[in-house]
Amino acid sequence: MEKIKESLPDWGGQHHRLRGVLAAAMFASCLWGALIFTLHVALRLLLSYHGWLLEPHGGMSSPTKTWLALVRIFSGRHPMLFSYQRSLPRQPVPSVQDTVRKYLESVRPVLSDEDFDWTAGLAQEFLKLQASLLQWYLQLKSWWASNYVSDWWEEFVYLRSRNSLMVNSNYYMMDFLYVTPTPVQAARAGNAVHALLLYRHRLDRQEILPTLLMGMRPLCSAQYEKIFNTTRIPGVHRDHIRHLRDSRHVAVFHRGRFFRVGTHSQSRLLSPRALEQQFQRILDDSSPACPHEEHLAALTAAPRDTWAQVRRSLKTQAQEALEAVEGAAFFVSLDSEPAGLTREDPAASLDAYAHALLAGRGHDRWFDKSFSLVVFSNGKLGLSVEHSWADCPISGHMWEFTLATECFQLGYSADGHCKGHPDPSLPQPQRLHWDLPDKIHLSISLALRAAKTLSGNIDCHVFPFSHFGKSFIKRCHLSSDSFIQTALQLAHFRDRGQFCLTYESTMTRLFLEGRTETVRSCTREACNFVRAMEDKEKTDAQCLALFRLAVDKHQALLKAAMSGQGVDRHLFALYIVSQFLHLQSPFLDQVHSEQWQLATSQIPVQQIHLFDVHNYPDYVSSGGGFGPADDHGYGVSYMFMGDDVITFHISSKKSSTRTDSRRLGQRIQDALLDVATLFPEGQHLKRRGLGEEDSG
C-alpha cells in the first residue's frame, strides 16, 4: 500500500488521508481480482482431472475423494447455472494415431478380412500423407476456439443439411405413460405452458442448478441458452439459428388456424387458469381456416432450399403473421385427436402416439421452432424438438420440470380445470392472417404431399419392458447402459443375422460447449458374446463370462468418449479441415460415408427428486424417440422408468424390406430375458434362448 501511495500524485497535506484510502481500495481490488483469477485457474485445473471416471463401480479412491473435496471448496457454496462456464476445460484434440487405431478396432467386427485390409491400407496412407497437416490445423483451432468441433458439428451436420427436419432432425418426448392428470385439453395446455414459462423464468435468473455428473462433476450449461425464443431460419445453402432475448407470447395451431396468445399481463405471467381460458377460446372458435392456411406448416417439413425460397415470398406478403410464429417463445399445437395408451389396444395406441409426436400429419407442427408442445384432445401431452440448437438431455431436463410442476405443484381442481379463476378482461387470442400469394399455393401442396409420404413411411413402436429394470442390473453389479447396449447387439443380430456399425450417443459436456460423441457399441467382445449365445454348445457360465467382458469393453469406450478420447468427432473435424484445404483423403471419405444401421441413445432421468417413483411409480415420463439414421436401419432409444421398468422406442422405415420395428421390439424383449437368465438373480425369468426358433 505504501508503494501504491508513492505512485499517486501529491495533492498536499490535507489530502494525505485520501491517498491512503485510494491506495487501500486499489490494493483490495487487485487482491480480489487475483483471488478470483486464482480460483478460476485452480478450478479449471481440477476439472481437467478425469481419473474419477476410471473408478470401479461403487468405489472411490483417496485421490478422487481429495479431488472431490477440492472441487467443492473452489466451487463456492451456491453455484448458479452458468457459474462453472469460465472454469470448464476445453475439449482436447486426441492423438491422430490413437484415433485411427481405435477406428480400425471398431470396424473389424463388421468387415470381411479383405475389406478390413483395404481399410487398414487407406488408414496407413492417411497417417503418412495427410494426418500430420490436418492435425496441426485442428490443434491450432483448439487454441483459440471454445470447442474444436462443436461449432462445425452444428453447422455441417445440422444447419447445412438440406433434408426435411421432420424425422431427420427432430425427436420427441412423451407424457406420463399410464396416467393423464386431466382429460380437459385446455386445462392441460394452460398448466403445461405456465410450467414451461416458469422454467424459462428460472433459466433467465440462473436459478436452475448446474447438472453434476454422478453428483460431483459439473457439466457445460451453454445449450440451455437457446431453449426458448428460438427458431431455425431456413437458408438456400445454410440455415441459421435466430434467438431472441425475450418473447411474451406463444404461437398456437388448431384445426388449420394460427393464433397469437399473450403469456403476460402487465409484465406478470398469466395464471394457469387464465391461460386455460385463452386456449378454450381457441377451441371454441368455429371460424374456418383460410384457403391453404391449414397446410401452411408443411413448408417447414420441406427440403430446406425449397422452404427458404418460399419463405422469402411469405415474409413479403405475410410478415406480421410469420414474425408472430417465429418470434414466439415456443409453438403449441392443440390436436383434434386423442393419443396415449389405451386398454383396448395398448401396443397400437403407443405406436400411434409416438408417430403423432415424431411426424404428426406433416402440417400441424412448425418444425423450425426449438420445440413444439403438442396437446391432444384427451389431455395427453408431448414434445417435438428440433435438434440443431441442443441435445436431448437439455430438453429432457426442461420436460421433467414441466411434468412435475404442472402435475404436482400447480395441480388441477376436482372437475379437471386449472386451479384459480378465469380473467374475463383478457383480450381474445389474436387470429393470424396469412396473405398467401398464388405462387405459394403449389409449393404448399407439393410440401404437403412430400410430408405425408415421409410421415407415412415411418414405422414407430413403443413398449414398456416390465420384467426387470435398473434395480436388477444394479444387483448384478453392472452398468445399466452397458447391459442394454450389449443386449441390443444380441437382439439386432437375431433380427438381421449380421453385425453392423452401431451408434450410441453420449455427451461431452465435461468440456466447454461440448455436445456429443459416438460410442461404437458393436465391439469384438460384444460379437463374441452374441456368437456364444447362439451356440448351443456354450454353457451359461461361458456366455456370462463373455457378457461381462463385453460390458467392461463398452464401459471403457463410454468413458473414453466422455473424456474427449472418442473416435468420430475427431475424424469428423479432420474431414472438415481436409475439405477447407481441398485435400483429398480416401480414408476420411470412407469414414464420412459410413451408414449407421443401428442408432441408439439412452434418455437419462436427471431430476429424480421431482418424482416419487416409489409411491407414484406411474408418474414418470416414458421417454422419447427419434427417426432412423439409415433407410434400412433402426433408431432405438430407451429410458429407465423408476427401478423396474425400461421403456423402448423403436423407429424404422416401412419402405425397407429388412426392418420391422415390432419385430425388433420382440427380439429386444427376448434378448433381455435371455441375458438376465445368465445371472443367478434372473433364473426365474426365462430359459436362455438359442436363436431364431426360440426367440420367435
TrEMBL record:
- Which molecular-function annotations from GO does this UniProt entry contain? carnitine O-palmitoyltransferase activity; palmitoyl-(protein) hydrolase activity
Keyword vocabulary terms for this entry = Acyltransferase, Membrane, Transferase, Transmembrane, Transmembrane helix
Q: Which protein is depicted?
A: Palmitoyl thioesterase CPT1C isoform X4
Question: What SUPFAM superfamilies does this protein map onto?
Answer: CoA-dependent acyltransferases
GO annotation, biological process = carnitine metabolic process; fatty acid metabolic process
Residue positions of the active site: 387 (proton acceptor)
Q: What is the lineage of its organism?
A: Eukaryota, Metazoa, Chordata, Craniata, Vertebrata
Pfam families linked: Carn_acyltransf
Start and end residues of each Choline/carnitine acyltransferase domain = 92-669
Q: Which GO terms describe its cellular component?
A: axon; dendrite; endoplasmic reticulum membrane; mitochondrion
Similarity field? Belongs to the carnitine/choline acetyltransferase family.
